[in-house]
Each structure stands twice: as C-alpha cells, then as structure tokens.
C-alpha cells in the first residue's frame, strides 16, 4: 500500500467500525458522503459537505467517532474537517472544536462570614475564582453582517472594543425586537475585548440569571459575596435587562452598576424596549441606562438580508443560486433569526433527502416555516393601506406630483413592496407605482431606510402601515 493512500485505508477501517455500531440509514446519510483527505501522523483530515453536516455528526456521533479514531489511529488521534470550495473562495479548514474565546484569568474575590455584614475591623479572606466569560465563539464580529439596521451598534461596539470603559458609550444600551442581532453584537464586543485585552475579566449574563443568582445569595446569606463577585468584573454584558424585575435584585444591580461605572469598567445591556419604556424599573436605574449610548436595531432591509444569507451559506459550505438567495431574502423579511432558521432548515432538508437546493425546495421549506400569511400581502393591499393611512387616493399616489407627502407615501409603498412581496423585481414595482424605473425604486427604499433610522415620526408611519396590513391579513 502506497503511503499516500494510507488515509483512505484508515478511513475505510473507521467506516467499517462505525457501520457495525449504527443503523444503515444513518450510516448512508451521515458517513458515506465523508471523504478522507490526508493523514499526517495522528491527524486525520476529512471533507464534509457543509458546516451543518459537521455540527450534526459532532452532536450525535462524537463519542463513536472518538472511540473509532483511537482504535484506528491511536490514543492521540485528532480529527479535522475541510469543507468544499464555495464559488472562488479558499477552502475552510476547521478543527473538530470551534476556536474558543480566550478564558478569563483567575481573580481574587473577598469572602465574608455568612453571618451578615462584616466588621470594618476584620479583614476578609480571599478566594481565587476562575470566571467563565460564557461567550460563544460564533458570535464574533467576523460572523456579523453589517447593514443600515445595525450600523450604529456595530460601530459603537468596535469603538468600545478598542478602549473598553474609556469611550462615551458606557453603558451601551442595545434595544429592538427579537432576532435583530442584539445578543450577537453584545457578545462580539466581549469576544473582541478578550482577544485584545486578555487580562480583562468579561462576563455575559442574562437579566433573569442575575435575578436568580441574587435570590440564591439572599437565601444562603451570601449577598455580600454576590456583590463582591460582580464588582470584580471588567466588562459586564447583561442580555435582556428588561427581565431584571424585583426591588431587591435591582438594588443589588444598582450597587454593581455604580461601582463598575465609577471604576471605568464597561457595561453593555440589551433589551426588547428602549430605556424609557422599561416597566417596573426604579427611576434611578433607568436614568443610569441613559448615561451612555442607546441604539435601536431595526428590521434588516433586503440588501442586508441578502448579504447575511450569502455570508451564512458560505460559512456552511453550501452553494446557493442567486435565485434561491433572492427568494429567501424576499420571503423572510422579519429578522436575522428567522433567516438563519430558514437557511438551516433548507440545508437540512437537502442534506437528509440527498436533494439539490432548488427554488422549488426553498419554496416548500419556507412555506412550512413562514406559512401562508406573507403570501397574502400583495401590491394592491400595500397601495390601499398606504392611501388609507395618508388619506390620499390611488391616483394621487401614482401621479407625478412632487408634493412631499405624496412622494413619501409613494416611497413607503415601494419600500414595503420590496420587503414584503416575494419575487417582486424593482422594475415591476416601479412600473406599477407610477411608471418609475428600477433606480428610482432603489433610491426610494434607501431613503425610507435612512429616514426610519433618523426620524422617529417617519418610523412610526411605517410601523403603523405594517400593523394595518397585518390586521387585514389576519382578519
């Protein structure tokens, strides 16, 4: 046997072992498509169809893989993956585990007796504690698609990463609806800080977790230790801060906030609503949320959705046609989370069913996710709703008048057609809405997106119109 063919023989040996331990259907689906690439010492590299494929076999077959590799190669066996080239991109090489976020260094935290407040004349003991940052490596800036919907948040986050605690953006308060990338941006900041300043202690926690930890501390008479722990953090990220309800937990958080802010530590919060709209929060805490920068994340526009899908497909190693990408970007127009979910489902259907990802398959899969509600939104409904909202006639909307109100109403109608109607081209929208060309429609969509991010009243107009259409569709 030639030495260059050794990797093939070793992998075939692994396949025989695996085939004897799982049923034939699973073996055909998940192991037959894998191709051995090379064997260097005890390091075996195999090619898998996509990153989704890699995730699945690691989730469900990792114990079997480890045992098989040790048996075929030895105790120090290592497994690496490569994913096929997508378009003209270089192949991606991935270790069997994602690259970890740098760990926090152990810190000394003062500890007190469990008998209430310590005497000022007694020095506390110190405990060496290693604090997990709880950051996920995939939530890095490199995996974040920037668009008009999140540009301000990303820019502020990158500035914070260069000088945590020393910018005017402290605290940074990110708010918006579900699935718009608040958690991703917040964690990306933490990851970037850990990579630049490995001595800093970064912690990600949810508002509900902070509240639960506080209640446990009270129950066990360890509230002083609880406060001391949080005062040792350099970068505190609290996700879903709106869940931090309860006077006791808010009092504790108020003390933590003051200590960290006064000592130049970085604070980052996310919420589903603006600071002013938080309910059941003490005024003194709400005022502190407004000290730094509050950034609203909005729904991604078509261009950003398309780029996000293209980027994610490339990371998954899945070749998607422009027709499929455009269809998904048009069909799923709510948030990033649903976009990712639709793409993951599409890849899963194609992989498990050994099918090519076509427009027909995409329509079938997304129909199961989105349902039929979206398909009921058509150009007539959009035009009718816009005209009713602005109290104008259809003829006025489609006329060539340059009156500001009519122009803005027409631009909003174009924007909604672009974002809510599947497979509706710019030329079609322009033709139906006053005989405009595709460049005019593109300009209108860009103008609406800009105004939504800078003009609160204009943003409310768009939201009201969308809510009116939703009520009509559901009726």
Structure characterization notes:
- This protein folds into four domains: 3-95, GMP Synthetase, Chain A, domain 3 (2-Layer Sandwich); 107-296, Rossmann fold; 302-371, Helicase, Ruva Protein, domain 3 (Orthogonal Bundle), CATH 1.10.8; 376-474, Chromosomal Replication Initiator Protein Dnaa, Chain: A (Orthogonal Bundle), CATH 1.10.1750.10.
- The protein is built from 19 helices and eleven strands.
- It has helices spanning 6-19, 24-30, 51-72, 151-162, 182-196, 207-219, 223-230, 247-262, 283-289, 302-316, 322-331, 336-352, 359-370, 379-390, 394-398, 404-420, 426-432, 438-454, 456-474, and strands at residues 35-40, 43-47, 78-83, 92-95, 107-111, 125-129, 172-175, 202-206, 235-239, 266-271, 293-296.
- Strand 9 (235-239), helix 8 and strand 10 (266-271) form a beta-alpha-beta unit.
Measured between the Cα atoms of the first and last residue, the distance is 71 Å
Described by strand count, sense and barrel closure, the largest sheet is:
5 strands, parallel
CATH class of the largest domain: Alpha Beta
Total DSSP E strands: 11
């Amino acid at each position: 046997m030639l030495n260059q063919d050794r990797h093939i023989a070793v992998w075939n040996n692994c396949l025989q072992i695996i085939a004897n331990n799982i049923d034939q259907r699973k073996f055909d689906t998940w192991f037959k498509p894998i191709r051995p690439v090379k064997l260097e010492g005890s390091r075996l590299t195999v090619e898998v169809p996509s990153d989704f494929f890699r995730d699945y076999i690691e989730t469900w077959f990792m114990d079997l893989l480890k045992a098989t590799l040790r048996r075929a190669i030895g105790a120090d066996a290592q497994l690496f993956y490569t994913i096929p080239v997508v378009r003209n991109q270089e192949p991606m090489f991935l270790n069997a585990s994602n690259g970890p976020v740098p760990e926090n260094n152990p810190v000394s935290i003062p500890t007190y007796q469990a008998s209430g407040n310590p005497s000022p004349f007694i020095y506390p003991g110190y405990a060496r504690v290693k604090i997990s940052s709880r950051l996920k490596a995939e939530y890095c800036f490199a995996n974040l698609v920037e668009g008009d919907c999140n540009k301000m948040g990303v820019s502020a986050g990158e500035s914070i990463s260069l000088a945590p605690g020393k910018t005017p953006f402290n605290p940074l308060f990110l708010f918006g609806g579900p699935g718009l990338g608040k958690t991703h941006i917040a964690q990306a900041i933490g990851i970037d800080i850990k990579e630049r300043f490995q001595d800093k202690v970064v912690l990600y926690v949810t508002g509900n977790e902070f509240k639960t930890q506080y209640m446990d501390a009270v129950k066990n008479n360890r509230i002083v230790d609880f406060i001391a722990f949080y005062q040792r953090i350099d970068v505190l990220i609290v996700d879903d801060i709106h869940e931090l309800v309860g006077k006791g937990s808010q009092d504790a958080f108020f003390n933590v906030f003051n200590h960290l802010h006064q000592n130049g530590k970085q604070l980052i919060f996310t919420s589903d609503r603006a600071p002013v709209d938080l309910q059941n929060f003490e005024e003194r805490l709400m005022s502190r949320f407004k000290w730094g920068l509050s950034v609203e994340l909005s729904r991604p526009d078509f261009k950003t959705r398309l780029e996000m899908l293209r980027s994610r497909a490339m990371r998954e190693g899945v070749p998607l046609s422009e027709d499929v990408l455009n269809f998904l970007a048009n069909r799923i127009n709510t948030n990033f989370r649903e976009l990712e979910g639709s793409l993951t489902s599409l890849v899963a259907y194609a992989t498990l069913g050994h099918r090519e990802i076509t427009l027909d398959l995409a329509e079938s899969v997304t129909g199961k996710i989105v349902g039929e509600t979206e398909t009921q939104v058509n150009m007539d409904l959009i035009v009718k709703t816009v005209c009713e909202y602005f109290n104008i006639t259809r003829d006025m909307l489609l006329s060539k008048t340059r009156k500001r109100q009519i122009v803005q109403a027409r631009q909003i109608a174009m924007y909604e057609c672009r974002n809510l109607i599947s497979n509706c081209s710019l030329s079609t929208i322009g033709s139906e809405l006053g005989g405009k060309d595709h460049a005019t429609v593109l300009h209108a969509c860009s103008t609406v997106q800009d105004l939504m991010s800078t003009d609160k009243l204009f943003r409310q107009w768009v939201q009201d119109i969308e809510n009116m259409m939703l009520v009509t569709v559901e009726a």
